Amino acid sequence: MLLGGSLALILISLFLLSSGGSNPEWGKFWMIRPLLTVTFAGAVGGAFFYVMDGFRYRNQWNKIGVNILCLIVYIIGLWMGTVLGLNGTMWN
Fold first, then answer.
1. pLDDT tens digits, one per residue of 11-33
2. Is there a contact between 82 and 34 (Cβ–Cβ < 8 Å)?
3. pLDDT above 90 for 42
């Protein structure tokens, strides 16, 4: 969970810092919502990776399939967290 959340925090931080100025209508602490939401989504993706750990050790094909599934779930979760976090501020 820590690794998934850390990766998500780094990605959203880089995105927010490269975005430039903010709209005065968004408030003073508008960056807190996306930072928390995306980090939580990344941590949930990391937890899913950990929960699926038991399925990796059956055979080689299960390992490949579970790793691909975990990557897809992590990317979709990160995308959903980004959309929810930036809704109302950068994405209207």
1. 999 998 888 767 777 777 888 99
2. yes
3. yes
Using CA atoms, how far residue 37 sits from 25, 53, 61, 83, in Å, is 20, 25, 33, 9
The predicted structure's pLDDT at residue 92: 65
Residue with tokens 């850390």: 6
Taking the C-alpha atoms of residue 75 and residue 30, their distance in angstroms, rounded to an integer, is: 24
pLDDT at 83 over 70: yes
Contact 40, 82 (CB under 8 A): no
- Residue 8 neighbours by CB distance under 10 Å: 26
Q: Where are the domains of the chain?
A: 1-7+33-92
Hey, which residues does 87 pair with through a beta bridge?
A: 91
Size of the chain, expressed as the number of residues it contains: 92
Q: Where are the alpha helices (DSSP H) in the chain?
A: 2-17, 32-51, 60-86
For residue 41, give the nearest of 68, 91, 6 by alpha carbon: 6
